[in-house]
Amino acid sequence: RKLEQDLRHALGAGEFEVHYQPIINIETRRKVAMEALVRWRHPVYGLIRPDEFIPLAEETGLINALGEWVLQQACRDASRWPLAVRVSVNLSPVQFQNSDLAGQVARILAETRLPAKRLELEITESVLLHYTDENIGVLHRLRDLGVSIALDDFGIGYSSLTYLRTFPFDKIKIDRSFVSEMPQMDVCAAIVCAVANLGRSLDIVTTAEGVETEQQFDLLRAAGCTQAQGYLFGRPCPVAELDFDDAIPKRSAGIEKNHALTARDVMLVRTSFSLVVPIQDTVSSLFYGRLFAIAPNLRRLFSEDITDQKRKLMAVLSSCVGRLHDFPALAPVVRELGARHVGYGAKREHYASVAQALLWALEKGLGDLFTFEVRSAWIKVYDLLAAAMQAGAEEIETERAVS
Ligand code: C2E
Ligand code: MG
Ligand code: MG
Predict the structure, then answer these.
(1) Ligand 1 pocket: which of 70, 90, 154 to mutate (most atoms within 8 A of CB)
(2) Is the pLDDT confidence value at 343 over 90?
(3) Strand pairing partners for 39?
């Protein structure tokens, strides 16, 4: 009861704070969004986490005023961030009892001048458990504003696939419990893979929550998840401490050893590539189409007519794949290629876009044959080739700097 009394005047007393945690794109490791997570700085008990007071705020109805305040604060903060970074705000099912929720969001967007497409609202499936029709109506009105809607904590609770049918979610957030056990439990890895595939088929972004280790991250990338969030990339922190800088570097040492190709990797890449050869025109068209869609600034590095380029791409892939079994012999050739690419204007950050487009094209081309294992093998091969190319690029850049 004491906490309840304190909670009643906490909002007026300015005791709440919004902290933010980065969400990154798995291919580029760049920050694409920040999730707003509320904190209560209690004068006696110190910083209290939401799990301890949100249920109380929901019971007492205080969540309505608190939720509105968080939304205002988050939109105001986000309006000062780089345009490419969105903000994600959690909504309680209780807030859906306010039939004017969409009106409230629209007013806040207007007041803070945040474009609707930079706001994402996270709901849990409990919103769809009761008053389903009314709540789906509210969700549609929110989406009509241009705001995106994410389904949070996916996989725990009822997780009925019906939810994905009743509302066109923009994003699924895979619950932390599956991600944290991925390296030890094949069942969790299989579930995460299946959800990532589901997301791809339905054209829904998948975000893995609670990523704490590089090992988990590698598995998520192989599974084909789109985004990741977790302590590995940053803990929730006050707005003043946010850092929007470049991609988050890989931390683990000894990557080379980890990524050494096994005979099985070589076999998987070879057999899958042999299936690409007969449909190489389709796959290379898919590749360039995707590449220029995700990195439009790369278009000008290529000649107008891409036909010749498609042939070159296949030739390079084919000669690399053919010599993978003897990587030490292949490496100098690839380094040389990397050095030549500097002359064409290739930059370090382009490698992530190329990886993204390549995996996408292979998957579209090979369909079900592009399994988790095949994808992992391609990722390993690509990382090795890209590292060799970058080493070649650096050599030539240092040489030029010296001369
Ligand atoms: P959520 O929306 O699923 O948020 C993710 C939670 O996981 C956050 O906990 C975050 O700090 C934690 N987390 C993130 N990465 C990691 C990790 O790598 N390892 C571990 N162990 N934990 C990680 P937090 O901030 O305590 O929030 C808990 C829940 O409270 C949130 O879960 C959300 O459902 C709710 N919540 C937070 N802010 C609000 C709000 O403004 N409104 C409403 N309605 N609910 C909120
Ligand atoms: Mg959330
Ligand atoms: Mg969650």
Answers:
(1) 90
(2) no
(3) 17
